[in-house]
Each structure stands twice: as structure tokens, then as C-alpha cells.
DNA sequence: ATCATTTGACCTTG
DNA sequence: CAAGGTCAAATGAT
């Protein structure tokens, strides 16, 4: 952690800086009887920033401070309910293709892996996890010994076109059917990942993106998605309990996919109100289920933020979002060096090990 | 026609 | 050898 910071280190710094900035704002807000909403927004932003920071640390666990991170995640009362464990034993197996696949297999084995627990409130619709912002394609489902529900396997839609090897596994919990264990493996190297990373981390960047035709289109379609598709999918979900998917490009969510992305880049401002989690596809109950997209958190940094419908959900969100994003994205450092220098003394000796 | 999901077969790992 | 993971043909949706 000294020389040549990696993207995650930068992201970490960014998150911490953001947290500090938000805290400052909150401080100002508190001293000036401002709207409660504003405060809540700031608080959420702060929490999200720290969540992300922790996620980053967690993700780098083996390389940096595993114990420390582990402990942090284990703190009782911590909003982070992520199942910090790097999944026990699903080692990177499989992959048999004789030639190229071999390489791929190798890649996968060395790719980072992390697990998250996402909770969905099937009664009210979607609370908890929704899209993680990426497009996934289901490539398999398997009954797991001892598990009531089958495990679904997803890979990035852009695997072939952009050589993105991110994959995820979704397993519905036996104990709590509303909980899904999602194991991610590999970082997104596709453009989608880059896009999400940027839009989510920097409000400025996001604004910029909105001027960009392609991205703008995506955002619009995604917003629609949240309000419409969700409902449709939910109905299906209820009628077919054993199978439903989240976020991914599953059949039920296909529309989105065609746009190139599944969701995300949401301008929380206008969307939040009716913003519920989109996901659930008619297909498999345990499948795609995603976490709050990187965008949610990204908004955190901005003035407006995501408002979680219920405290309960909030916790889950925090956990998911944090864990989800960091690992997956190749975040570009969202802050201007100026900004950083002027506001945060991370250069100070001791800030980083 | 194109693309995503389903599902049985096959491969890898322990 | 069993279980988990992936492939790929069949099928479905748009």
C-alpha cells in the first residue's frame, strides 16, 4: 500500500474522502436547521461510502488486512450483513474446453471471489437486492446436495464480445427463502463495468454521461425498468415460487438487456420515489438476483440519495451494495486530485500503511 | 433472425 | 466416485 496505488486503493481513498465530505456537509446541516430529508440523505451517503471502503478492503483481504476487515464486518450492529466469507468450497472448477477454455479456467481460479447475502421481500415486491447493474447470462443450474434450491450460474453477457470473465452464482437460502447467497467471481472488464463504475462514483461524471447519447438512452430505459418490469416480474414470481431471477438478463428482464445494460445509472432524483427493486424473472427462482447497483451508492456521493423503504432493507442494501460493487468494478478514481488534496490529508504519513 | 434460458451431458476437483 | 461447475443443443421469447 505504498507505491503505485491500484484502482481499488484509489477507490478506497475516494470513498473515505467522500465520507468525510458528506460528514462535513452533515455537520453543516445539523448546525443549520435544514430539512430532515437532506440529513437522512447525507447520513446514508456516509454510510454507503464507508461500506464501500470496507468492501474494498474486504475484497483485498488476502493482500492487505484480512483480519482487520473481517473483524470490521463481524462487528455486531454493523450495517454490513454481508456474508464476509469467501465462499467455502466452490473452487474454480469446471471449464474443460481443451484449448482456450483452459486458459479461461486458469484465469478463473485466480480470480477473486466473494459472497454476499441478499434478501428479498417477496411480499412487498422487491426489497433488498435488485440489479447490480450488470448484464448476466445464465449458463447453468445445478441441484446442490443438501440444498433445497438449485444453484444458478451466471456469466457476464459480454464474455465473448469483450472478454469479460465475471461470473456469479446464486443460491437461495434454505433457512430464509427470501435470502440469496450470491457468489461473485472475477471483476468485470467489460465496458459496462467501466461505465457503471464511473457513473456511480462521480456525480460529475454521471452528469457528463447523461449528455452522452448512448449512455443517456440506457439510463432512461433503466428507469422505466424499475417501475414497470418489476411489477410484471413480481406477479410471475408469486405464481412460481420456486424460480425467479434477479437482475440479470433473464428472460423477464430481457428488455433491459437489449439496451446493453441491465439497469443502473439511475438518476435517483426522479426514480427513487417509485424505485423498487427490479429483478425477478419468470424463470428461475434462485437466479438472478442482484444487489443494489453501483449507482445507488454512487448517488450517495451526490446531493440526492437512495431512500430505502425500510430499515430492514436498508441494512441489506448497505451490505450488498458495498460488497457488490467494489469487487466487480474497475473503478476509476472518481475524484479530482485537486479535490482530494484540498479536502483530505490522505497523504499524511500513516494514513495508509 | 437473434439472443437468452433450460437442461442433460460432460469435465474437473477433492 | 460424488459433487460441483460448465458446455452446448434444444427451446422459447422478442
TrEMBL record:
The keyword Nucleus applies. One of its GO terms (molecular function) is transcription cis-regulatory region binding. It is found in: Nucleus. Keywords: DNA-binding, Nucleus, Transcription, Transcription regulation. Residues 131-188 form the WRKY domain. Residues 83-118 are annotated as: Disordered. Pfam families: WRKY. GO terms for biological process: leaf senescence; response to hydrogen peroxide; response to ozone; response to salicylic acid. GO terms for cellular component: nucleus. Residues 90-104 have a biased composition (Basic and acidic residues). Belongs to the WRKY group III family. PANTHER family: WRKY TRANSCRIPTION FACTOR 30-RELATED-RELATED, WRKY TRANSCRIPTION FACTOR 41-RELATED. This is Probable WRKY transcription factor 41. It comes from Cucurbita moschata (Winter crookneck squash). The gene is LOC111437532.
Amino acid at each position: 500500500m505504498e507505491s503505485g496505488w491500484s484502482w481499488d486503493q484509489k477507490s478506497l481513498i475516494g470513498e473515505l474522502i467522500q465520507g468525510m465530505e458528506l460528514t462535513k456537509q452533515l455537520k453543516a446541516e445539523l448546525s443549520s436547521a435544514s430539512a430532515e430529508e437532506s440529513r437522512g440523505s447525507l447520513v446514508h451517503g456516509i454510510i454507503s461510502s464507508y461500506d464501500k471502503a470496507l468492501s474494498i478492503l474486504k475484497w483485498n483481504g488476502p493482500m492487505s488486512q484480512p483480519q482487520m476487515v473481517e473483524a470490521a464486518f463481524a462487528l455486531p450492529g454493523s450495517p454490513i450483513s454481508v456474508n464476509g466469507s469467501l465462499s467455502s468450497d466452490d473452487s474454480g472448477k469446471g471449464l474443460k474446453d481443451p484449448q482456450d477454455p483452459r486458459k479461461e479456467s486458469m484465469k478463473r481460479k485466480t480470480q477473486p471471489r466473494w459472497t454476499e447475502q441478499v434478501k428479498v421481500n417477496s411480499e412487498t415486491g422487491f426489497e433488498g437486492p435488485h440489479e447490480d447493474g450488470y448484464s448476466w447470462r445464465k449458463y447453468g443450474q445445478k441441484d446442490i446436495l443438501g440444498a433445497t434450491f438449485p444453484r444458478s450460474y451466471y456469466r457476464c453477457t459480454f464474455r465473448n464480445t469483450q472478454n469479460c470473465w465475471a461470473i456469479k452464482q446464486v443460491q437461495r437460502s434454505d433457512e430464509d427463502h427470501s435470502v440469496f447467497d450470491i457468489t461473485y467471481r472475477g471483476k468485470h472488464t467489460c465496458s459496462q463495468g467501466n461505465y457503471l463504475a464511473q457513473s456511480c462514483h462521480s456525480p460529475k461524471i454521471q452528469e457528463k454521461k447523461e449528455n452522452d447519447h448512448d449512455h443517456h438512452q440506457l439510463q432512461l430505459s433503466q428507469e422505466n425498468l424499475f417501475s414497470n418490469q418489476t411489477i410484471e416480474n413480481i406477479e410471475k414470481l408469486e405464481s412460481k415460487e420456486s424460480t425467479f431471477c434477479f437482475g440479470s438478463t433473464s428472460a423477464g428482464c430481457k428488455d433491459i438487456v437489449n439496451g446493453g445494460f441491465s439497469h443502473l445509472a439511475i438518476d435517483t432524483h426522479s426514480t427513487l420515489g417509485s424505485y423498487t427493486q427490479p429483478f425477478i424473472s419468470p424463470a428461475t427462482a434462485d437466479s438472478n438476483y442482484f444487489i443494489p447497483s453501483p449507482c445507488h451508492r454512487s448517488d450517495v456521493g451526490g446531493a440526492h440519495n437512495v431512500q430505502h423503504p425500510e430499515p430492514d432493507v436498508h441494512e441489506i442494501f448497505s451490505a450488498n451494495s458495498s460488497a457488490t460493487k467494489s469487487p466487480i468494478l474497475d473503478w476509476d478514481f472518481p475524484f479530482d486530485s485537486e479535490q482530494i488534496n484540498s479536502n483530505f490529508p490522505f497523504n499524511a504519513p500513516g494514513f495508509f500503511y
